[in-house]
Design a protein that fits this description.
The complex is a heterodimer of chains A (590) and B (292). Chain A is of the alpha+beta class and 590 residues long. Chain A is built from 16 helices and 18 strands. Chain A has four domains: 188 residues, no CATH class; 47 residues, no CATH class; 85 residues; 152 residues, no CATH class. In chain A, strands 2, 3, 4, 5, 6, 7, 8, 11, 13, 15 and 18 form an eleven-stranded mixed β-sheet that branches. The radius of gyration of chain A is 30 Å and the shape is globular. Chain B is mainly beta. Chain B folds into two domains: 114 residues, Immunoglobulins (Immunoglobulin-like); 133 residues, Sandwich (Immunoglobulin-like), CATH 2.60.40. Helix content of chain B is 11%, strand content 51%. In chain B, strands 2, 4, 6, 8, 12, 13, 15 and 17 form an eight-stranded mixed β-sheet that branches. In chain B, strands 9-10-11-16-14 form a five-stranded antiparallel β-sheet, with no helix packed on it. Chain B has a four-stranded antiparallel β-sheet with strand order 1-3-7-5, with no helix packed on it. In chain B, a hairpin with a 2-residue loop joins strand 12 and strand 13. In chain B, 29% of the residues are buried. Classes of the chains: A alpha+beta (590), B mainly beta (292). Chains A and B meet through strand 8, helix 16 and strand 18 of A and strand 8 of B.
């Protein structure tokens, strides 16, 4: 009986299997389908196996997909298919053979030939090939996006990292997206291939989920120095490393659609947060010695507690009264680098510091070289000495030489890492509050509307746009400038240190919030120090406390009293810069 | 004797001449006729030139001098001026509150009204490191008490149906342009209720704050009709204190109702007078600029 039924089922199921096989074979004949599949594979390999070290293989893979994309695009077109190849061929020629040469004399010569070969087919085909030729630029754009154009722009042009950019960098398989765009609407037999349609729908849903984030910022730039593929890939790897690993939003959305469909948004955000904690804990586990037992649950709970720390919610803004902040920049000009290795020719770089407040700043400068091929690191000797340099000048500029301390000659692609360690930087924040005493809610709102809002325009603490700032908040609610003297209203002091610069805070020598006459429930919320700072952390929470008492003159004023509080942090900060370059061994002269 | 008579006549003539000239003098006559208790007038303020200066430098002394001028037709008393909103971190004032006055209002004896200079001495402190300037907004708030008198001649006619009464005609509703203060009687309505020999009369006043400040309390001091006291009540005042009204935050108007019984049947004109006192607050927004 059982056997009969299974046979019957098999017979009944045969057409379904046949149809399925036909769908798969139909789809496999399609170059776009291949491009999508390989694009996903390429993306997965980049985020897993290739990781942050190998940049050659993903580049090679991307190049192959570039060619496949061109082919997929030709299939999509009905006429003048080969015209697509013109811009693609010229791009390959320029980027690979001529190594993206930007020399104006070369460009005039090269672009003239390109222009002639670009325009001639348009003339001969009476404009028919113009469309396909322009379409040929599409794979070029996708090629750059895939090898890391966005992270590169974020790093070099200081594009703001919006949630959309973060999603695109972390989760966008660019070649798969290209494959999706070039999918045919119908297959060759004029019958719709359901597998292709299904994949297309899934792809579109995926993109929709990635694009839920705000629109791209409209940042203009007028100058572009096209870097090598290594630099693109390196920028991509570096930026990826900066983001905490979290669950792919597509997976989160899909999982939430089927489990908690009543509150998909809340569920997605919860899953994303939890995956972030898990990833942080896994990183911590990797760092910890294998002899010790790692309590993953406790770690996740700790991470959650840290994230929920009320201090982290305290925000701050840039103080507009301080026009010039303290800033620093490491400038490396690759043109000045030796192309052939010689022990006597060093690598030079500059350090530029703007110190408008004439603070006494101490800085130590370090450098080293890392071979891209072997991953081997070569220590660099900084001249003049790497010892602490102290200065008070408003504009401090100094050039340094970095000499590789290696017995063997350098050969191949290297990355020069420069590090400037600043010590004793000081940044003062200020916070304005209005003490109104015991007023009725109506009078309080009238005061807020007619007077306080005109005197205190910013409810958050303000600080110059230095490397880091102390964000602190005093009052009944975050950002509310009014403080009342009512028994049932607590006055809280919450604060955090925020890294707003491009580097890392390595130590907080001291933090001090000047609340003279105020008694906090915890003295460490007014002053203290943090000796060890996690390099990945950009927000450092400080202890929060309740204000038990405060000066009587602020308790019941006839009108209201404005009071400004100041908080200062003294900290150490590290700025880094890395540049890739190619060097050959010195040719022996006989 | 003749000599004495001559001198007497001469002196009399001089006195007569002076009297005639004195009484027919153009300006004096106009002033005598001028009614100061009309329109809307207030206590006005202006800074004395360069006090405070446009820019204040760090760690320097400065002075805020306010010329307070009573342009009202009434005296003001219990005046206090306060500086509110200046941060002690940047500007340290010796005193943030100063009492001044009383200031006599405009009258025949003082046609310009009294004025006084209210001074606040202060010292600037430093700017935040790196800051080039600091702009501070503050308020000058002044509180005072003053008076307002209202008087008019009104027609009273209890017999609404007396067609052949050749007396005055009643204006059921009258409007007024002010009584020389920020508090003004804006409107008066006369309502008669005939009853037997005479009748009841209700006078409804609309008082308004037409100045730029805030009126907190209005008190009715005196109300008379034809020399006799008139019983009046503020419409929105509490039951136990009907001649005293505390105005709410956004209230700009108050209603006062006066009632009396009329014995006469014929129409006649009579004087109506009311006297009020009130508390007033004026607020002005200013800025100080502290530079390096």
């Amino acid at each position: 009986m059982v056997g009969e039924s299974s046979v019957a089922k098999a017979i009944a199921g045969a057409p379904i299997v046949q149809a399925g096989v036909s769908q798969v074979t139909g789809a496999l004949k399609n170059a776009s389908f291949w491009l999508m599949g390989l694009g996903i594979l390429h993306f997965l390999l980049r985020v897993s196996i290739f990781g942050n070290t190998n940049t050659t293989l993903p580049f090679f893979f991307s190049m192959c997909l570039f060619v496949l994309a061109g082919y997929a695009l030709t299939i999509k077109l009905e006429k003048k298919k080969s015209a697509i190849m013109i811009p693609m061929f010229f791009f390959l020629l320029w980027y690979i053979v001529f190594k993206g040469n930007f020399d104006p004399r070369f460009l005039i010569y090269f672009l003239s030939i390109f222009f002639v070969l670009f325009v001639l087919p348009i003339i001969f085909t009476k404009g028919e090939s113009a469309g396909p030729e322009l379409l040929g630029f599409l794979p070029v754009v996708f090629f750059f996006l895939d090898i890391g154009l966005l992270p590169f722009l974020v790093e070099k042009l200081n594009w703001p990292i919006t949630p959309l950019i973060e999603n695109l960098v972390l989760f966008m398989p660019w070649w798969a997206l290209f494959g999706l765009f070039t999918f045919p609407t119908e297959d060759g037999s004029s019958k719709t291939n359901f597998l292709i349609t299904g994949v297309r729908i899934l792809g579109i849903i995926y993109i929709v989920f990635l694009f839920i984030a705000p629109a791209l910022p409209n940042v203009g730039y007028d100058k572009s120095a096209l870097p090598g593929p290594q630099e693109f890939e390196a920028a991509q790897a570096k930026l990826r490393a900066q983001f905490p690993d979290k669950e792919n939003p597509f997976i989160s959305n899909m999982a939430c659609l089927f489990t908690e469909f009543q509150d998909v948004a809340g569920c997605v955000s919860k899953r994303q947060e939890e995956s972030e904690y898990k990833s942080t804990c896994e990183n911590l586990k990797r760092k910890q010695s294998s002899d010790l037992v790692f309590d993953m649950d406790k770690c996740i709970l700790d991470q959650k507690k840290k994230k929920e720390d009320p201090s982290l919610k305290v925000s701050g803004v840039v103080d507009n009264t301080i026009k010039i902040p303290t800033t620093a920049e490491i400038i490396v000009d690759q043109k000045l680098f030796p192309t052939e290795y010689s022990k006597d020719i060093p690598f030079s770089f500059d350090l530029k510091v703007k110190n408008p407040r004439k603070q006494e700043i101490a800085v130590e400068v370090y450098c080293n070289f890392t071979s891209k091929k072997e991953g081997e690191s070569v220590k660099g000797e900084v001249k003049p000495s790497a010892k602490e340099i102290k200065f008070k000048e408003e504009n401090f500029e100094s050039s340094f030489l970095c000499i590789p301390d290696s017995a063997k000659a350098m050969d191949g692609t290297y990355t020069l890492f420069v590090e400037a360690r600043f010590k004793g930087l000081k940044t003062t924040s200020r916070l304005q509050r209005a003490f109104i005493g015991q007023k009725t809610p109506e009078i309080k709102e009238k005061l807020r509307r007619e007077e306080i809002s005109k005197v205190i325009m910013v409810g958050e603490s303000q600080a110059p746009a230095d490397f880091a700032r102390l964000n602190f908040d005093l009052g009944h609610a975050l950002g509310d400038p009014i403080i009342e003297d009512k028994d049932y209203r607590n006055i809280l002091l919450r604060s955090k240190i925020e890294n707003i610069g491009p580097g890392r805070i390595t130590k907080v020598e001291s933090y001090k919030i000047d609340l003279e006459g105020f008694t906090p429930s915890l003295p460490t919320c007014l002053e203290g120090a943090i000796t060890t700072v996690d390099s990945a952390v950009r927000d450092i929470p400080l202890p929060s406390c309740v204000i038990d008492s405060y000066p009587t003159e602020l308790k019941n004023p006839s009108d209201w009293v404005q009071k400004e509080f100041q908080g200062t942090i003294t900290y150490d900060y590290v700025l880094t810069k890395d540049v890739s370059f190619l060097i050959k061994p010195q040719v022996a002269v006989n | 004797m003749i000599h004495f008579k001559k001198w007497f006549v001469v002196r009399l003539l001089i006195l007569l001449f002076l009297f005639i000239v004195g009484c027919s003098g153009g300006t004096g006559n106009q002033l005598a006729q001028y009614n100061f208790k009309q329109g809307i007038s207030e206590l006005s303020f202006k800074f004395l030139q360069n006090a405070p200066p446009e820019k204040l430098y760090r760690n320097s002394d400065f002075r805020i001098v306010v010329d307070a001028h009573n342009e009202m037709a009434y005296d003001l008393t219990n005046a206090k001026m306060r500086v509110v909103g200046l941060d002690n971190t940047y500007f340290e004032l010796e005193q943030t509150e100063k009492a001044f006055g009383p200031l006599v209002g405009k009258s025949l004896l003082s046609p310009e009204g009294d004025r006084t200079f209210v001074e606040f001495d202060g010292r600037t402190k430093g700017l935040l490191p790196g800051a080039s300037e600091y702009r501070a907004t503050y308020f000058l708030k002044t509180n005072f008490n003053s008076l307002m008198d209202f008087s008019d001649t009104i027609c009273i006619n209890p017999n609404l149906y007396a067609v052949y009464d050749s007396g005055c005609s009643v204006e059921a509703q009258k409007s007024y342009g002010g009584q020389g203060a920020p508090l003004a009687v804006q409107q008066l309505e006369e309502i008669f209720t005939p009853a037997g020999n005479g009748g009841g009369m209700e006078l409804r006043f609309t008082l308004a704050n037409r100045g730029r400040g805030k009126m907190t309390t209005v008190r009715l001091l005196k109300s008379q009709l034809g020399g006799e006291d008139l019983k009046c009540e503020f419409a929105d005042a509490p039951l136990d204190q009907k001649t005293w009204l505390v105005l709410k935050e956004e209230e700009k108007e108050a209603r006062l109702t006066c009632k009396t019984f009329l014995r006469d049947q014929r129409s006649y004109t009579t004087t109506l007078s009311l006297s009020f006192s009130y508390d007033y607050e004026v607020k002005d927004e200013h800025q100080l600029l502290l530079v390096k």
